[in-house]
Amino acid sequence: MVELKTDTSIDAMFEAGQVVARALTAAQKAADVGVSLLELDEVAHDVLREAGATSPFLGYRPSFAPTPFPAVLCVSVNDAIVHGIPTRYRLRDGDLVSIDFGAELGGWVGDSALSFVVGTPRRADLRLIETAERALAAGIEAAVVGNRIGDIAHAIGTVCRGAGYGIPDGFGGHGIGRRMHEDPGVPNEGRPGRGMRLRHGMVLAIEPMVIAGGTDDYHAAPDGWTLKTNDGSRAAHAEHTVAITDAGPRILTAR
């Protein structure tokens, strides 16, 4: 069941989304050669505390997970696509880092992600990240009243496939509101004109993921959470929480 949010509720979700935006900005700024992933998690946690918000990630345990998620920030490095658990690993020059973060404030949830390179970037990594961001922008542009979920999926998939990248099968965006994961699902590839029609008040987390090697194959790491590319190639991830409104898409996690 899809819950349509009121304009007042969307405004409240914007407040949660801005906590997410601040945490991601702070974590990216703190990321440097020699900094541990656990330290990035603590930076993000500090933003939550300052805002009086809580984490929808900490303690979250979906059906596929062997254990509850132990942190507030997902940090996926190099060949990790999503769901990376922060560890004592210290960042190295040239690491490609994807960070994903959620916040709950006043009973509403925001969710967003970004990718970046620590230190000296490879040209191929910058192109990968830029493609994920372009795919996100294309998906958001398609998120208008009267379009369908398939239009968002098609816009994302066209950008990703056009760049020659893989798209991890079975993972994509989702509805969001009182809970982090709500209906409907938002695939990262699909046919235009198909799926649920978009209406004013729907709120979606749109999140393309791209695999540099061009294949769609991935596997779960021994921690049971981190998804890694099968071919060892790098991955990038971009995400925003977006409200569908009569005035056009409103990005609630804009940084």
From TrEMBL:
EC number: 3.4.11.18
Job of this protein: Removes the N-terminal methionine from nascent proteins. The N-terminal methionine is often cleaved when the second residue in the primary sequence is small and uncharged (Met-Ala-, Cys, Gly, Pro, Ser, Thr, or Val). Requires deformylation of the N(alpha)-formylated initiator methionine before it can be hydrolyzed.
Residues noted as binding a divalent metal cation 1 in the record, renumbered to the chain: D100, D111, E239
Bound cofactor: record note: Binds 2 divalent metal cations per subunit. Has a high-affinity and a low affinity metal-binding site. The true nature of the physiological cofactor is under debate. The enzyme is active with cobalt, zinc, manganese or divalent iron ions. Most likely, methionine aminopeptidases function as mononuclear Fe(2+)-metalloproteases under physiological conditions, and the catalytically relevant metal-binding site has been assigned to the histidine-containing high-affinity site.
Quaternary context: Monomer.
Molecular function, one GO term: initiator methionyl aminopeptidase activity
Organism of derivation: Streptomyces olindensis
SUPFAM superfamilies assigned: Creatinase/aminopeptidase (SSF55920)
Name of the protein this chain belongs to: Methionine aminopeptidase
Cofactor(s) this protein requires: Co(2+); Zn(2+); Mn(2+); Fe(2+)
Occurrences of domain Peptidase M24 (ranges): 12-246
InterPro entries for this protein: Creatinase/aminopeptidase-like, Pept_M24, Pept_M24_MAP, Pept_M24A_MAP1
Annotated keywords: Aminopeptidase, Hydrolase, Metal-binding, Protease
NCBIfam families: met_pdase_I
One Pfam family, short name: Peptidase_M24
UniProt record similarity statement: Belongs to the peptidase M24A family. Methionine aminopeptidase type 1 subfamily.
Catalytic reactions on record: Release of N-terminal amino acids, preferentially methionine, from peptides and arylamides
Enzyme class: hydrolase
HAMAP family: MetAP_1 (MF_01974)
Keyword Hydrolase: yes
Sites where the protein binds substrate: H83, H181
Claim: Transmembrane helix is one of the keywords in the record: no
Residues that hold a divalent metal cation 2 according to the record: D111, H174, E207, E239
